[in-house]
């Protein structure tokens, strides 16, 4: 085991981690706002990858250029989710909330399976292709750009939430819905915005991943699991925590795969999750 | 110490609405004589599936409905049960009647091992952890050569129908009775549980953990007890299912669909209610089996679309499940004055 291989694994893990971070950030934003875990997050990711794929396959639009459309589609999807499902279950018991979003995930996944069959697809010859060599480390171009775009989107999201007026209103709603309403912040609108932004993040990640990842109807499950873990690791509702947590998960996944056995990647992440929730249940940066 | 402080008494058995008892008895007798009318094998299969799923959902009901912890990976215990009987039968020739208990025991051990760290936490943490557990089991069994890895176990067939090997090839009627009896036992156990002190404490833990704690109920211990009971109800169903289909593989018995369907049945019927899973299963399983017959060729997942849709609709409009349509006074016990 040379140091080059380890370095390679670290770089790969880092790049994957940034993508996990962005997916988790969307989840965390939604949770922070209304304390609902979106169990359909992976399915929304799947939808964004398929949107990217179909725009390429039907209109010949490269995944790189279709990203704005994908983001808009996913944001719209988020608003629909809020309007048709979430606003009815805001006051329901947690159990019902989990079941409802879980039901949404089954629904989306099986509709996708019916419409598009469970075949594996990929985008043939996208603009981003090939790899570059830095020192002794090979970096796939699509992966590199995907992670950079995700990082940029993450920074954008962070600045939006902490600096803009809407972002501050989101934070106020997250802290105390009723107090925010008294101050004239319509919480229903904020929730819809939160869903739009949260799924918009997923749109960025899915759109960039469509460049190099296989696209199939079950693709979201693993990403969603890692996003759940990242959110728990970073602390439910903390956005900056997601960045660190995503990177940790990416590194654990790739280094564990390299050093022990790649077929048990999920288990290493699971162990990390267990350790964190047992010893630091509020997560690394949580507000609870 | 606890029993001194808590005065909630378990309800005596006879303290139930007579009408409910007579309806239930009539239904049970009906179910026992039903095969005598010569049902064809499809209807037998349908009933077997209803019994199995009702019992599985009842298991989920114990952990989610009574103690309020949502397990999204309950298929793990189903798979353990299935693998236990098949593995011990093929490797050591142990009759499934004995290895059902091995399966229950192994499931219980796993439930304790998982429960001790996880059930100190609550809510989303536990739900996500169980989702991971369910998938971890599938991943491990897919790669575990001793139990046939991804191709699974093909149970050695006996040449004749055999009660010791619990295999019947000529007719489904024996399976029908086996499943029916296990379903009734499960139901009776959970019914007793729901009326016992333990049941009341579990519901106290569910409704207000802090208040329960202040009454000296050890919240995390009770959650673990509920989890263990739930796992021990789930495992025999896996064992029987393995005996029923005789070929098991990780994708079938550890499938996330199993975890989904137990949740769906319970939520549909009425969560936290002993009757809920039975109502849910007897509505959902026929839908599922018929949709598989008529729409089976179109890609397979049609019944899952309905599941998802039903689940969302129930969550929005009837969070207490279909049982909330039945007037309360029919189900409630006679008022004691």
Describe the model.
The complex is a heterodimer of chains A (288) and B (337). Chain A has 288 residues and is an all-alpha fold. Chain A has a single domain (3-279), classed as ABC transporter involved in vitamin B12 uptake, BtuC, CATH 1.10.3470. Chain A has 11 helices and 2 strands, in the order ααααββααααααα. Chain A is globular, with a radius of gyration of 19 Å. Chain B has one domain (2-22, 42-331): ABC transporter involved in vitamin B12 uptake, BtuC (Orthogonal Bundle), CATH 1.10.3470. By secondary structure, chain B is mostly helical. Chain B has a two-stranded antiparallel sheet. The A-B interface holds A 31, 37, 85, 88-89, 92-100, 102-111, 113-114, 117-118, 221, 225, 228-229, 232, 236, 263-264, 266-267, 269-270, 273-274, 277-278, 281 and B 64, 68, 70, 72, 117-118, 120-121, 123-125, 127-129, 131-133, 135-136, 139-140, 143, 256, 260, 263-264, 267, 271, 298-302, 304-305, 307-312, 314-316, 319.
How would you summarize this macromolecular structure in one to three sentences?
Chain A is an all-alpha fold. In chain A, 75% of the residues lie in helices and 3% in strands.
Number of strands of chain A: 2
- Characterize the largest beta sheet of chain B: strand count, sense, and whether it forms a barrel: 2 strands, antiparallel
- Shape field of chain A: globular
Structural class of chain B: mainly alpha
Distance between the termini of chain A: 42 Å
CATH class of chain A: Mainly Alpha
Q: Rough shape of chain B?
A: globular
DSSP strand tally of chain B = 2
Q: Return the CATH architecture of chain A.
A: Orthogonal Bundle
The radius of gyration over CA of chain B amounts to 20 Å
Order of helices and strands of chain B: HHHHHHEHHHHEHHHHH
Order of helices and strands of chain A: HHHHEEHHHHHHH
Strand order of the largest sheet of chain A: 1-2
DSSP helical segment count of chain A: 11
């Amino acid at each position: 085991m040379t140091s080059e291989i380890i370095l390679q694994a670290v770089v790969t893990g880092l790049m994957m981690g940034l993508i996990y971070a962005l997916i988790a950030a969307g989840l965390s934003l939604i949770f922070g706002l209304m304390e609902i875990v979106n169990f359909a997050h992976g399915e929304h990711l799947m939808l964004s990858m398929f949107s990217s794929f179909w725009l390429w396959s039907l209109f010949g639009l490269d995944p790189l250029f279709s990203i704005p459309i994908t983001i808009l589609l996913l944001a719209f999807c988020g608003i629909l989710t809020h309007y048709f499902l979430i606003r009815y279950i805001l006051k329901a018991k947690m159990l019902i909330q989990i079941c409802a979003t879980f039901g949404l995930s089954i629904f989306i996944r099986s509709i996708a399976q019916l419409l598009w069959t469970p075949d594996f697809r990929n985008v043939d010859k996208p603009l981003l292709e090939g790899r570059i060599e830095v020192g002794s480390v090979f970096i796939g171009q699509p992966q590199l750009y995907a992670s950079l775009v995700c990082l940029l989107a993450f920074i954008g999201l962070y600045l939006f939430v902490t600096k803009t007026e809407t972002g501050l209103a989101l934070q106020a709603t997250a802290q105390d819905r009723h107090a925010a309403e008294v101050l004239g912040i319509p919480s229903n609108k904020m929730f819809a915005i939160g869903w739009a932004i949260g799924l918009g993040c997923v749109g960025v990640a899915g759109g960039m991943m469509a460049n190099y990842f296989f696209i199939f109807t079950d693709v979201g499950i693993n990403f969603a699991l890692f996003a759940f873990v990242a959110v728990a690791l970073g602390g439910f509702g903390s956005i900056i925590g997601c960045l660190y947590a995503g990177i940790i998960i990416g590194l654990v996944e790739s280094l564990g795969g390299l050093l022990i056995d790649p077929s048990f990647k999920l288990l290493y992440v699971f162990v990390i999750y267990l350790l964190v929730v047992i010893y630091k249940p509020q997560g690394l940066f949580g507000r609870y | 110490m606890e029993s001194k402080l808590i005065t909630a008494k378990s309800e005596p058995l006879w303290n139930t609405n007579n009408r409910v008892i007579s309806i239930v008895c009539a239904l049970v007798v009906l179910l026992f004589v039903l095969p005598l009318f010569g049902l064809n094998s499809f209807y037998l299969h349908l009933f077997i599936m209803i019994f199995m799923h009702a019992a599985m959902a009842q298991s989920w009901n114990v952990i989610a409905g009574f103690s309020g912890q949502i397990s999204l990976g309950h298929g793990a215990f189903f798979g353990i049960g299935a693998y236990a009987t098949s593995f011990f039968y093929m490797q050591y020739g142990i009759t499934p009647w004995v290895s059902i208990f091995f399966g229950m025991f192994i499931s219980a051990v796993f439930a304790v091992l998982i429960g001790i760290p996880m059930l100190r936490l609550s809510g989303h943490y536990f739900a996500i952890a169980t989702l991971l557990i369910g998938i971890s089991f599938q991943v491990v069994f897919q790669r575990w050569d001793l139990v046939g890895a991804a191709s699974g176990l093909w149970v050695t067939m006996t040449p004749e129908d055999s009660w010791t090997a619990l295999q019947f090839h000529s007719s489904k009627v024996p399976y029908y009775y086996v499943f029916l009896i296990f379903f009734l036992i499960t139901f009776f156990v959970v019914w007793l549980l729901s009326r016992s002190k333990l049941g009341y404490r579990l519901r106290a833990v569910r409704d207000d953990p802090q208040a329960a704690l202040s009454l000296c109920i050890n919240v995390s211990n009770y959650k673990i007890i509920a989890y263990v009971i739930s796992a021990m109800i789930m495992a025999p169903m896996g064992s029987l299912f393995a005996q029923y289909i005789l070929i098991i593989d990780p994708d079938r018995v550890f499938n996330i669909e199993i975890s989904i369907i137990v949740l769906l049945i319970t939520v549909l019927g009425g969560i936290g209610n002993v009757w809920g899973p039975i109502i849910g299963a007897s509505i959902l399983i026929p839908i599922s089996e018929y949709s598989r017959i008529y729409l089976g060729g179109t890609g397979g997942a049609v019944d899952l679309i309905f599941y998802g849709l039903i689940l969302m609709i129930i969550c929005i409009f009837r969070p207490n499940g279909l049982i909330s349509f039945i007037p309360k006074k029919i189900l409630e016990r006679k008022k004691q004055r």
